[in-house]
Specification:
The complex is a heterodimer of chains A (about 190) and B (about 325).
Chain A lengths: L1 H59 L6 H14 L6 H22 L3 H4 L2 H36 L3 H7 L12 H4 L4 H5 L1
Chain B lengths: L3 H56 L10 H44 L4 E3 L6 H6 L9 E12 L2 E17 L5 E17 L7 E6 L1 H6 L10 E2 L2 E4 L4 H6 E5 L2 H7 L2 H14 L4 E5 L2 E7 L16 H15 L1 H4 L11
Helix pairs in contact in B: 1-2, 1-8, 2-8
The chains are: A mainly alpha (about 190), B alpha+beta (about 325).
């Protein structure tokens, strides 16, 4: 008699405990998945930075007036190669690289020889591809962040999240410059 | 892309004269088949008349109940052989008409849409390609099709045909009797094209029944992993409402299904109003559109001179060929050329 009453009282706590452990594990898994997703963004960023020296080499003999852009690109690359960069710093360098590469692409329009150079064209397609992969990785990362943030903020798993001090993570936003449409007119000036 | 008004002109200048000729052939074929039928009946009357006559000469009666009636048995055997021959001839005549119709009319429409396309009335997408798409299970036991179109549109190689795939199930009832049943796997248009990006995994975009019926709550019916791979949740809510995506890698799935391609697929689906099954395997895109009717079959029993019918064929073909431009497959700015 006494035992069954104890069991009856203990059962809900036991179920609650099981649920708590399961939820906590789920949040950990979501966090790990998000970190793993960032690793693939990082891998594609590195892949792009590896292409930069080739691009600079291919372009610099043609471009006289745009030396400053090329110097900026080289500087950005060496910063990106420094060890111990935080995620935010890596993303920041990447955004600057995006706008620098865009100005290279615009400048290329002034050099017909360069535009027909097969070596350069090949590089351009590789860069396009890496950019598409970076964008894919960023979207995958954001999807995993969404799952994690839902876990952290939605009731009842939010209780466990606050007990474990888990807070929502920021999305990887597309920089303002990339979101605005390409200004076609500027390409022809 | 050809417009419908261009097609109307093409119908008047090219198709109509062809159809007039074919209509003559159709009437001629029907008349021929009719006279073959009459001759066959006459033959049967003569055959059995002779049979009974000889029977009477041998046994003294038209039909001897306890005897072998050899002449009549012979007549029956000859009838069976003649019947097979008769059906074969009728079907072959009709087939000849259908093939000529398809080669002339469907072939012309295909070339009208794009000069580089080749049409073959009796070929179809090979079974290996159908299996390679991994869209449908199980492996077909019976596979066929017709109306094969292939060619290269700008840089993209395409091929499509009507496909019929079935598998066999054998059930045993309580008496131990086994029964064969043919279950359809897929009937409709099957399309394959070279995709404009390279990738390693396999990805599937399937109609989302659960979310269409239950809205957002339908998400709970989507399993996070099945034989197609891992569930990939994409950010476009409208796309997610129509389709569910599975694949081997989350990042590569998004590399293929860029935000632009998702929009294009959605527009294609909404414009055609068809249920579509898509897979991306080995740098190719496969698209399957189920149809209930047989495609591109001429009407044997009434006049062929119908602009509506040919316009319908044109629209169906144009829709499939148009996938290349609809999905922007000729954009080759990535390393795959």
């Amino acid at each position: 008699m006494g035992l069954s009453i104890i069991l009856l009282i203990a059962a809900p706590f036991f179920i609650l405990l099981i649920w708590g452990i399961a939820t906590s594990n789920r949040l950990t898994r979501l966090r790990n998945e998000a970190e793993n997703a960032f690793a693939s963004v990082d891998a594609y960023l590195k892949k792009r930075f590896d292409l930069i020296p080739n691009l600079v080499a291919a372009v610099q003999q043609y471009m006289g007036h745009e030396k400053s852009v090329l110097t900026e690109i080289t500087a950005l690359r060496s910063r990106a190669m420094e060890p111990g960069l935080s995620n935010d710093e890596a993303i920041d360098i990447n955004n600057k690289m995006n706008s620098a590469l865009r100005s290279v692409n615009v400048a290329v329009e002034n050099y017909p020889d360069l535009k027909s150079n097969t070596n350069f064209l090949q590089l351009q397609t590789s860069l396009n591809e890496v950019e598409e992969q970076i964008s894919a990785a960023r979207r995958a990362y954001n999807a995993s962040i969404l799952a994690f943030n839902n876990g952290v903020q939605l009731f009842p798993s939010s209780i466990i999240a606050s007990m474990r001090n888990l807070t929502r993570k920021p999305f990887l936003e597309t920089p303002e410059a990339e979101r605005s449409n390409v200004n076609v007119k500027s390409l022809f000036n | 892309m050809k417009s419908e008004s261009e097609f109307r002109t093409f119908y008047q200048t090219t198709l109509e004269p062809l159809l007039q000729n074919l209509n003559k052939l159709r009437r001629g074929t029907r008349a021929k088949n009719m006279s073959i039928t009459l001759m066959f009946m006459l033959f049967l009357v003569v055959l059995f008349g002779l049979g009974f006559f000889v029977n009477r000469m041998i046994y003294g009666v038209w039909f001897a109940e306890s005897k072998a009636n050899v002449p009549i048995i012979l007549s029956v055997i000859v009838t069976i052989i003649a019947f097979i021959y008769y059906i074969g001839t009728i079907v072959a005549n009709k087939r000849k008409f259908v093939v000529r119709y398809k080669n002339e009319i469907i072939g012309s429409i295909v070339r009208f849409i794009d000069m580089s396309l080749i049409y073959s009335a009796e070929d179809f997408i090979p079974e290996q390609e159908f299996i390679a798409s991994r869209l449908f299970y199980p492996k077909p036991d019976r596979y066929g099709g017709d109306d094969f179109v292939s060619g290269t549109i700008d840089k993209t190689h395409i091929a499509f045909s009507e496909v019929h795939a079935k598998y066999k199930t054998v059930t045993t009832d309580s008496n131990g009797k086994t029964k064969e049943k043919w279950v359809p796997i897929f009937d409709g248009m099957f399309f394959k094209a070279d995709f404009n990006k390279d990738f390693n995994g396999a990805y599937f975009v399937l109609p989302d029944m659960a979310e269409k019926m239950f809205g957002r709550a339908g998400k709970i019916f989507q399993s996070s992993r099945n034989r197609y791979g891992e569930l990939v949740r994409l950010e476009d809510p409208e796309f997610e409402k129509q389709f569910v995506v599975y694949g081997s890698d989350q990042v590569e799935a998004r590399y293929i299904l860029s935000t632009a391609l998702m929009r294009r697929l959605l527009n294609f689906q909404q414009r055609t109003g068809k249920r579509i099954y898509i897979s991306f395997v080995k740098s190719s895109i496969f698209l399957a559109i189920p149809y209930r009717k047989q495609l591109f079959e001429p009407n044997y029993y009434s006049s062929l001179l119908s602009e509506d019918k040919t316009t319908e064929y044109f629209q169906d073909l144009e829709m499939v060929v148009g996938i290349v431009s609809d999905l922007n497959l000729n954009t080759r700015i990535w390393s795959k050329q």
